[in-house]
Amino acid sequence: MKNKKISIIRKKLDKLDLKMLSIIKKRSSLVNKILEQKQFKNQIVDNKRIRIILSKIKKESKRKRIDPRITNTIWKSMIKAFINYEFRNFKKK
Taking 90 as the threshold, does the pLDDT of residue 91 lie above it? Predict the structure, then answer.
């Protein structure tokens, strides 16, 4: 009986994962638009912006009663992944 419940919950997680992929695709598109505007590689990492994002996520996580350590880890990882993406795809004009 327990395994069936786990299986049902995992199917819900799988559906959520697919929705998250769609959101990541939209975010990637926006990152590409920003990347097109950057003229120099040193514009890719904006530590002030990163601090602002992480602060907003922490505040919103607490408001929504989500463990902020989870969201902080996810966002830091996502930001790092997109920074790496920008460096790989940067084309000096």
Answer: no
Q: What CATH architecture is 2-89?
A: Up-down Bundle (1.20)
Do 49 and 31 form a contact (C-beta atoms < 8 A)? no
For residues 83 and 40, is the Cβ–Cβ distance under 8 A? no
Alpha carbons 56 and 74: distance in angstroms, whole number: 14
In the numeric block, the tokens 């084309």 are attached to 91
Q: Give the pLDDT confidence of 34-79 residue by residue, as tens digits.
A: 999 999 999 999 999 999 999 999 999 999 999 999 999 999 999 9
CA dihedral (58, 72, 30, 47) positive or negative: positive
